[in-house]
Amino acid sequence: MALLDPADPLQPRSFHSVLVIDDQRGTQDAVTAILSSAFAGLGTRFAPNVEAALEQQVFSEQELVLLEPALRGRFGMEVLTRLRTLFPAAPVVIRSSIASRAAIRAAFHAGVLGYFPKTMAPSLAIAGLQFVAAGGTFVPREVLSQPEMDERPSQQGKALTASQTKVLRLLLTGRRNREIASELNITEGTVKQHVHALYRALGVTSRAAVIARVAWGALEQHAIKEER
Predict the structure, then answer these.
(1) Residue 4: which pLDDT band, with cuts at 50, 70 and 90?
(2) 150-221: same fold as 2-144?
(3) Half-sphere exposure at residue 129, Cβ-oriented, CA atoms within 13 angstroms
(4) What is residue 219's three-state secondary structure?
(5) CATH entry 1.20.1260.10 includes domain 150-221
(6) d(Cα 182, Cα 76) in Å, to the nearest integer?
(7) Residue closest to 68 by CA, chosen among 209, 215, 205, 167
(8) CB neighbour list of residue 19: distance below 8 Å, 6 or more residues apart
(9) I need a labelling partner for 150 at 20 to 30 A (CA). Which of 46, 47, 218, 227 fits?
C-alpha cells in the first residue's frame, strides 16, 4: 500500500547505493535479487550492525538504508534510535521478520520511509522500494488490516518464570541450546522445555519470531514478570 498525502506531492529521492544492515547472512542473496530489480546499477553493501557499517564508510543522504531491527544483542527501536542518533538524515526502510501495526507505527514515528515484512512477495517489495525512491512512503495493505497483537487469541501475557527469563536473555544473544545449558548449568533438555514455554507465552513458533517480537517491545506490552 502506497501512502501519499495529496497536499504533499512526491519529491523523487536520488540514491547512489543501498546499505543493508542485517546479521542474517543467509538473506543476502534474496535481498540482492530484490535490490537489483528495484534499482538497476546501484551498488549494495552489507553490514551486520550499525557500527560495522560506520567502519566501512560514513552514511550518506544518497544511500538508502535497508534495516533489520532485530539484530543480535540489540532490538527494535534501540537499533533504529542508534542509527538516527549517528546519522539523523539517513533515508531508512525497514525489512523485518515482524509485521504488527504497533511495530509499523513505532518505525514511522521514527521517520522510516517504508516497512517491508520479510514474507512479502519479491514483486511487491520491488514496487514498494521503487515508490520510496519516487518520493513516497510504503507499507503493505495486508499489514494494516491485521489486528493488534493483543487482539489475537494466544497465550501471550503469561508471566515467565525466572529460569525462562534467563533462557530468553541468552537466546536473544544468539546462543544455541547447548551454550545456554552450559552457561546456566542445566541440561539441554531443560533448555528446550524453557524455549517451548517461551514460544507458547509469546504466541510464536520459532527463535526468529521470538527475537522479532521482543525487538519491538512485545515483552513490555505483555508485562513479563520474574517469579522468585
Answers:
(1) very low
(2) no
(3) 30
(4) helix
(5) no
(6) 28
(7) 215
(8) 44, 45, 46, 47, 53, 59, 63, 64, 65, 66
(9) 227
pLDDT of residue 184: 93
Instruction: Give me the residue spans of the domains in the chain.
Output: 2-144, 150-221
Q: Report the distance separating Cα 168 and Cα 162, nearest Å.
A: 10
pLDDT band at 117 (very low <50, low <70, confident <90, very high): confident
Kindly report the length of the chain. 228
- The Cα–Cα gap between 204 and 189 comes to 20
Q: Which CATH number fits domain 2-144: 3.40.50.150, 3.20.20.210, 3.40.50.300, 3.40.50.2300?
A: 3.40.50.2300
Tell me the whole-structure pTM to 2 decimals: 0.63
Q: What is the pLDDT of residues 161-203, one digit of tens each?
A: 889 888 988 887 778 899 999 999 999 999 999 999 988 887 7
